[in-house]
């Protein structure tokens, strides 16, 4: 099988990540980069082409796949341009600035008949895949809550990510991944309603904090919370916190960190109606919140799931050869965009927004 010949538009943060990964990935030949800012191309690796323009890259007959890693507000035009040149396209997330923009892109993509997918490599984050596996195993009974949270401690928003018109803000940056994970985890479940808070805690233009509640028709209330300004005096290796919690009527599970640590926890007998023992705690005397009866709490190891971001491109290669489906399907990304619009609407009005009837 010949290598897929791929070129990348945008040699910034993500462009560099793609350069590193695709230079080493089996099944790919990285051809080169274009960037509106020529200074960004100065450190392109030896042997790769530094295209003088996007157009030159897109029109290069040796390029089969164009990967778009430019600012969010550039995706629409670049996708349309690449599609019209007959190139297959991988676009960085978020696929577009809104549903309307995406629908416009899809008209062109469909007309040109090219492959089109989105780089949602965080579907392979190990912490997420462990919690997804716990969910898929269905051993926690009826799930009532799923909580996904991410906290940063330095309040740092940077570069164009601080401007609305460029597609800045944390909802577009990390929110799109966190929502995509929840929706992909429960593919058949519809979201009945969305209630969200979206704030500029320290940024002037864009959101740097959000809490999103989604009520699903399978009974799950999912909560996604992200804060960039949770100031704390953490040791350096704790500067970034990631947590999952999933609760059902037959057990709970938690996962902490991107290198997942956690447990599945059950009780040896249901504790619905035990004698109310009075326990003295720091919060004062309590019956419901005291420790469980000795020996009734059972813990299990989390499933051993090993995934890595390279798996995204392994799937892409197989899908390109017709051996698998592309992992990330456009209607899924459209649904996430629509959800983000409902999030903004809820945050603006302070109301819960009905979503999928
Ligand atoms: N999948 C992920 O985990 C992930 C992580 C970070 C960023 N991203 C996405 O990658 C994209 C780029 O983000 P970034 O953080 O790397 O930004 P960045 O600012 O570091 O890099 C963007 C680069 O694109 C160039 N550029 C802008 N407009 C262009 C145009 N019209 N044509 C050619 N080049 C253009 C800029 O000069 C810059 O070099 C965004 O869509 C972002 O959401 C994805």
Could you please describe the fold and organization of this structure?
By secondary structure, this protein is of the alpha/beta class. The protein has 2 domains: 4-119, 3-Layer(aba) Sandwich (Rossmann fold), CATH 3.40.50.720; 123-260 and 302-307 and 338-354, 2-Layer Sandwich (Dihydrodipicolinate Reductase, domain 2). It is 28% helix and 27% strand. The protein has a 9-stranded mixed beta sheet. Strands 3-2-1-4-5-6 form a 6-stranded parallel beta sheet, with helices on both faces. Strands 14-15 form a two-stranded antiparallel ribbon. β5, α4 (99-112) and β6 (116-119) form a beta-alpha-beta unit. The model has no long low-confidence stretch (mean pLDDT 95). Bound molecules: nicotinamide-adenine-dinucleotide (NAD). The site of nicotinamide-adenine-dinucleotide (NAD) has 24 residues, from α1.
């Amino acid at each position: 099988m010949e290598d897929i010949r791929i070129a990348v538009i945008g040699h910034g943060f993500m462009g560099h990540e793609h350069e590193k990964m695709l230079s080493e990935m089996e099944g790919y030949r990285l051809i080169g980069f274009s960037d509106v800012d020529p200074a960004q191309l100065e450190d392109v690796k030896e042997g790769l082409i530094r295209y003088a323009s996007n157009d030159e890259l897109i029109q290069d007959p040796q390029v089969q796949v164009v990967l778009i890693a430019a600012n969010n507000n550039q995706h629409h035009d670049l996708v349309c341009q690449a599609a019209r040149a007959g190139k297959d396209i991988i676009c960085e997330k978020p696929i577009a600035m809104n549903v309307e923009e995406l629908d416009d892109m899809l008209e062109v993509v469909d007309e040109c008949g090219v492959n089109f997918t989105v780089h949602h490599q965080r579907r392979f984050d190990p912490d997420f895949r462990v919690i997804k596996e716990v969910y898929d195993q269905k051993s926690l009974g009826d799930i009532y809550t799923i909580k996904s949270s991410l906290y940063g401690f330095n309040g740092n928003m940077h570069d164009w990510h601080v401007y609305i018109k460029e597609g800045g803000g944390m909802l577009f940056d990390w929110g799109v991944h966190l929502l995509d994970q929840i929706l992909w985890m429960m593919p058949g479940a519809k979201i009945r309603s969305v209630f969200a808070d979206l704030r500029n805690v320290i940024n002037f233009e864009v959101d740097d904090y959000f809490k999103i509640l989604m009520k699903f028709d399978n009974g799950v209330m999912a909560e996604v919370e992200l804060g960039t300004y949770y100031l704390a005096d953490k040791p350096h290796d704790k500067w970034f916190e990631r947590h999952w919690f999933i609760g059902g009527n037959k057990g709970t599970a938690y996962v902490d960190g991107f290198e997942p640590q956690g447990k599945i926890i059950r009780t040896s007998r249901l504790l619905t109606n035990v004698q109310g023992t009075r326990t003295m705690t720091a919060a004062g005397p309590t019956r419901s919140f005291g420790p469980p009866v000795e020996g009734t709490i059972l813990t299990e190891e989390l499933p051993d799931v090993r995934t890595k971001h390279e798996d995204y491109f392994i799937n892409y290669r197989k899908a390109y050869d017709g051996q698998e489906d592309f992992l990330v399907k456009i209607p899924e990304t459209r649904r996430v965009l629509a959800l983000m619009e409902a999030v903004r609407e809820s945050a603006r009005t302070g109301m819960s927004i009905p979503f999928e009837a």
